[in-house]
Write a sequence for this structure.
């Protein structure tokens, strides 16, 4: 089923409640925003709504206040930053529901930012009475918070039952479009690159992508649990001992679609400047911290021939050079491939930025947990609720 888009909705003169993801990182004390990336990501939908005559109410969670007001997790600094970016006033509500908010409702062209939804425990409980209070504020509901779409909360799911019109924002639309196309109907060959720390975090993703893709390339620490399952010696490399049997089962069902590292960059310990070696077999006392050049070349070759690429997770400890080389080389290969590329997860995004190729990636997902669940074939409640 298709979700309704903000583009198909009449917003003129309407009070629009837009659920956005303003869960920005704050410096200790909660006054200073250390990255406004999430605010900027919401700007196209916010601008679209204002350009189409909406009176705009914005709502988000921030941090984990556990159902109680907490001045260190207030959205006030976000209101100030948003006003600068929009070059128009953004009123800040003292709460997200109740008479004090209802007395401040915006007129067309005006913007009101509600206070942190999670100051009320009812938000995460998806409480019907709280959902009704939120719904009462608006004529049209728009969800642009893809990063929260895997949670069934009052503002992402509950309130939709009580509004006349509900639609996906531009960012949500783009996320759904790219992730759906890549996982349901990809141009082929379709390849996936999966890395990161643990097999256990990505079991559903591996199982689901195995059904979809033509090649599944595994790197990062999770590769070593697979290599152990194949009976290889992995030295001091990170291995999830209790997931070896599972890795063996996954390997058997993937057959020759699965590609594992054939060489490794190893060191005796993980620290910058440590002596490194490239090896085919991991020696005793050493840990594998990146894929080696032969693996990089084989993966880059598969990437170069692909029409669709799905990537989640780094190929090594990319935060600590020189163990970033494999990840950065693959980022460049993805960028040069000309394929439709969909990248999820904060680490892969950082690798793409440090390789300087972000503008050559078709879609960088804004939702870590949500995009992993989507790739795992799990229906996101916040997306399902927008289907009509
Ligand atoms: P994830 O959050 O599951 O995507 O995992 C990302 C983390 O995996 C990063 O912090 C990497 O440093 C770590 N990682 C990747 N490869 C390795 C490796 N070979 N050994 C240890 N940690 C790794």
């Amino acid at each position: 089923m298709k979700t309704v888009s903000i583009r198909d909705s009449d917003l003129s003169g309407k009070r629009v409640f837009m659920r956005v993801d303003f869960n920005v990182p704050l410096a200790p004390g909660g006054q200073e925003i250390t990255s406004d990336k999430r605010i900027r990501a919401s700007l196209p939908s916010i601008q679209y709504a204002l350009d189409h005559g909406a009176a705009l109410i914005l709502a988000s969670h921030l941090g984990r206040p556990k159902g109680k007001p907490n001045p260190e997790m207030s959205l006030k600094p976000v209101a100030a930053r948003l006003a600068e970016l929009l070059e128009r006033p953004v009123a800040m509500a003292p709460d997200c529901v109740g008479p004090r908010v209802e007395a401040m409702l915006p007129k067309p062209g005006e913007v009101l930012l509600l206070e942190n939804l999670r100051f009320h425990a009812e938000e995460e409980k998806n409480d019907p009475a709280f959902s009704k209070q939120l719904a009462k504020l608006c004529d049209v509901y728009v969800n642009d918070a893809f990063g929260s779409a895997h949670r069934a909360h009052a503002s992402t799911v509950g309130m939709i039952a009580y509004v006349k019109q509900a639609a996906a924002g531009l960012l949500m639309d783009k996320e759904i479009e790219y992730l759906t196309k890549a996982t349901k109907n990809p141009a082929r060959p379709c390849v996936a690159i999966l890395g990161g720390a643990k097999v256990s975090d990505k079991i559903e993703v591996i199982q689901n992508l195995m059904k979809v893709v033509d090649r599944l390339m595994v790197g990062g620490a999770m590769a070593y649990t697979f290599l152990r399952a194949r009976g290889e010696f992995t030295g001091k490399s990170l291995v999830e001992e209790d997931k070896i049997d599972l890795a063996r089962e996954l390997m058997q069902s993937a057959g020759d679609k699965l590609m594992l590292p054939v060489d490794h960059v190893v060191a005796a310990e993980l620290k910058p400047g440590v002596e490194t070696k490239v090896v085919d077999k991991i020696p005793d006392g050493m840990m594998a911290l990146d894929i080696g050049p032969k693996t990089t070349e084989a993966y880059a070759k598969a990437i170069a021939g692909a029409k669709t690429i799905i990537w989640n997770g780094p190929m090594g400890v990319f935060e600590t050079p020189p163990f970033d080389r494999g990840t950065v080389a693959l980022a460049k290969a993805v960028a040069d491939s000309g394929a439709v590329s969909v990248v999820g997860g904060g680490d892969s995004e950082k690798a793409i930025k440090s390789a300087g190729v972000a503008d050559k990636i078709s879609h960088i997902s804004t939702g870590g947990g949500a995009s992993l669940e989507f790739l795992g074939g799990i229906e996101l409640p916040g997306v399902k609720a927008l289907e009509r």
